[in-house]
Amino acid sequence: MAAFTYIVRCADGTLYTGWTDDIEKRLAAHNSGHGAKYTRPRRPVTLVHLETFATKEEAMSREWHIKRLSRAQKLALVASSRGSGDAVH
Question: What's the pTM?
């Protein structure tokens, strides 16, 4: 089963990083107010970066690493994924 690490841009311009095994369902949860506590008051969210992994452990590890990046580094990651066509817009 595939797992995903993702970054969404919130309505206030902040970034949120998470992982899931169903990206469509997770985005719907974020935008309906049933997602993460952080994103609830910052809706809507837009997917700006997505990485696919074979296992949830890999996705969780990548989430942990991304969450430790600075905002500038996260923005560079988002920009690089747009150039490679990996991000979902």
Answer: 0.90
